[in-house]
Fold this sequence. Notes:
Elements: E1 3-9, E2 14-15, E3 21-22, H1 26-46, E4 55-59, E5 65-70, H2 71-77
Antiparallel strand pairs: 1-2, 1-3, 1-4, 4-5
Amino acid sequence: MPRIFFYVIYPHTTVTDDEGHEFVELDAAIAEAETVLRERSAHAILEAGRSLPQAVSLRDEQGIVFHTVTLAEILGRE
């Protein structure tokens, strides 16, 4: 089972994931990244003055980005 790391990208910083998570299917990892992005966005809105995250990049164990979920993509679906 591959370990996938979620990096949350903000306008001026990136929050790294040092532990990662194991997923059987890529679709499950992407769904989890979308959830992380929604939750981080909600917290930023509730705490006025915080920057909204722009995206979550999914990385493999070598740190290579293989998929990115953007806030614009999520908002466009809702």
